[in-house]
Amino acid sequence: MTIRSRYWSFSQVMLVLVVVLCELAPASFAWAADEHKRILVLYSTRRDAEFSIVGEDVLPKILDAGLGRDLDYYSEFIDVTRFPDPSYRVAFGDFIRLKYQGIPFDLVIAMGDVAAAFVATDRVRLFQEAPVVFLANNRDTRIAGNSSGFILERSFSGTLRVIEQLQPDVKNVFVVTGAAPADRAFERLAREQFRPFESRFAFTYLSALRASDLEQRLAGLPEHSIVYYVLVTEDGAGNKFHPLEFVDRITAAANRPTYSWVDSVVDHGVLGGDLYIQKAAVESIGRLALRVLHGERADGIGTSAINLNAVQIDWRQLQRWGINEARVPSGALVLFREASLWDRYNIYILGAVGILLIQSGLIAGLLVQRVRRYRAERELRTSQEALRASYERLRDLSGRLLHAQESERARIARELHDDISQQISLLVIDLGLMRDDAEPQTRRLTNEALSRAEGIVRSLHDLSHRLHPPKLRLIGLVPALRDLQHEMSQLGVPVTFTHENVPMPLPLELTLCLFRVVQEALQNAYKYSHARHVSVHLRGGSEGLTLTVSDDGVGFDVDEAWGKGMGLISMGERLEAVGGTFKISSKPDQGTKVNVFVPLSALRAPETVSV
Amino acid sequence: MTAPSVLEVSLPTTSPEPVRVLLVDDNDSMIARAAAALTPRCVVVGTAHSGAEALDAVGTLRPDVVVLDISMPGMTGLEVASTLRHQGSTAAVVFLTVHDDEDFLHAAQEAGGTGFVVKRRLASDLIVAVQEARAGRSFVSALS
Predict the structure, then answer these.
(1) Mean predicted confidence (pLDDT) in B45-73
(2) How far apart are CA A30 and CA A11, in angstroms?
(3) CATH classification at residue B45
(4) Based on the structure, what is the number of domains in chain B?
(5) What is the distance in angstroms between the Cα of A575 and the nearest Cα belonging to chain B?
(6) Would an 8 Å CB–CB cutoff place A611 in contact with chain B?
């Protein structure tokens, strides 16, 4: 009772306030009739009801957009759910009359049955001739005069068909309704509509229970059951609730899915159903209002019934209750579906995969490249080794060739000398003996034979000397070089030969090498340099043996000569074989100088080759 | 035949004992010719075909004169002569060689050779060179 008296005093204060405001209004306050459209919207629900909220959000926008001129928009809320007393209706009427006195409305919109009834009753008194557009749920709604409207009957049974599809095993439907008159009106309607389904479902009406009792009851529902929330604005204990807050309590407590009939319950734990789409209803009435505002007569349009229900399912509740999404009826709107990782990040995933693929490709490419490079390097190494090996073989071969040549020459020279020379010497001896005992006639012939034989001895001597001087082996380098000096001098090129501190004996191979180098150098001096004088100097020192052959000839380009024979290569190779080094310096017209150095270690090398 | 007669005359006065000679040459024919040239005024006490054999033979046979070829396989005659001198051998050395050459002569003398005979003059010069060497004198064939 205290609550009620407090609300009454509030209304009284409001009335006084409106009266005062009207009295204080300036005299010049006049409506510009042609520029403004003045619209009053009356709701059958409290200001914070979902339907009121949707209406206030959508309706002004539709009207604004549709009119294209200034709009004076007013809205009022008839909260009969909380104020069921008839005196509230009377006071509300007075309030409207006083508040909007003198305002000629271009249109009055009644949202819902209560508002429609209010307008039907007080229309002439309050709004004079203003046309009326209404949205009613009661199919018997009639408003006399210039009016038009939609009858949008509440449908509770559509959700039952949704349940049949989503949960075919459900047998029990527990219907939740409240204690308020409006709640009971809804319950009656629901019972009426559910009756044809009683063969399919067992309905249990949990009506006007205390909230806590209801919660307890809902927590222990048997299998194959669902909860159907109709409306609770007041529980059995007389506590008033915002219907959506009550839904939150129900869905939290219930151990089975909760279904309902209106879209405002979505996102309050309700699984879904065939739902009354409030926004669609508001849009429909908005369009109807615009027609009238644009000049159509409302009574010319008339009143028609519409159905704006649609199936909506909360995806999260499907997950919560383990219901297969495949059972959702086709055409249903599935809300709050959690996008899968793929849905949410597919661009990133594709991008990452792409980058990964590109990177993998690059890495693979690099690896292939590396393998190829390794292979190429290995092949290069192999071919370098092969080249080196073949170079070594070649050098070895040329060394052996030189050696074989020398050996062969030495062998032939020795054959010539030791065998043939010996034989001819014997021949000479025998001829000499013969000559001593011979007749004068024979003596002459013998003498001829003798001198011929001696000529052969000399020829053999020269030949063997050229091939391989026996002196090298028998008496050493210096006498052999002296022979070379002698030969060159005989060719007309004077040769100076000096030697000092030449160690004796030298290894035969080294002796032969140095002899051949001098021989080659003298040949070059004679053939190519056209030298007038050549000097050969051989000197033993603490470091080793130095040989110098220099001439005053025309000289030559060393680099060019290297490839043209002239024995330079064989000189180098001979020296290398005995561990010596070799340098040749020559410039055109500035003579040639051959410098050979053989280190001490090579001088002491044992005689390894017998030639 | 004048030279042999002179030597025949001088032989009893200078050396009543026949000269003991060791012949060293790798050629048997040459050894045969040399032996023929030296006989009978000298006694060929032995022959050797290499330097090594020669060194052994000198040690055992103690010849007065060693007739040495220069060119032999292995040790050369020059090396044999040097070795003998280093070993303190008293045998005189006469080189018998085909090397008709000053350098060989010098080398032979450096090696301690007393005589130097070129082979083609063996018949006339060897006996003289051996006898001269026995007497401590040098003999050298005329070189061409």
Answers:
(1) 92
(2) 28
(3) 3.40.50.2300
(4) 1
(5) 26
(6) no
